[in-house]
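User: Let's play a game. I give you a shape written as tokens, and you guess the letters that built it. Ready? Here's round one.
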């Protein structure tokens, strides 16, 4: 998700849905408003990370059968491994991002909060 906002007020102006975007989209896309100068429009790309889930996986071995020289596969046990299952927001306000994605809340009822360096640290109700 990419969120566009007014740098001065924090008001959210628009968004692009999705969890994974190409570099050309994240770096190249801009939003323009006739009544807001371009330099006052900020862009926040919500970071997403792999959702790692523990699964049980079979341990297999290949053995050559004597006499026929055929290779056979045998299950010798199981092990637990972490595998990615989708993406999850990597922010403290992840629950709000889920609600926005599901259209349970209107993103325009919220505004971004930035730190002294202009980095988005939160999204709060107006």
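Assistant: Ready! My guess for every position:
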């Amino acid at each position: 998700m990419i969120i566009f906002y007014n740098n001065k007020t924090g008001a959210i102006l628009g968004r692009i849905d999705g969890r994974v975007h190409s570099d050309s989209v994240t770096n190249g896309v801009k939003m323009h408003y006739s009544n807001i100068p371009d330099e006052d429009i900020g862009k926040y790309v919500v970071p997403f990370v792999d959702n790692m889930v523990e699964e049980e996986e079979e341990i297999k071995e290949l053995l050559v059968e004597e006499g026929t020289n055929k290779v056979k596969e045998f299950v010798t046990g199981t092990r637990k491994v972490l595998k990615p299952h989708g993406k999850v927001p990597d922010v403290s306000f992840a629950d709000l991002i889920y609600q926005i994605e599901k259209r349970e809340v209107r993103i325009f009822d919220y505004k971004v909060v930035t730190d002294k360096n202009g980095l988005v640290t939160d999204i709060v109700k107006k």
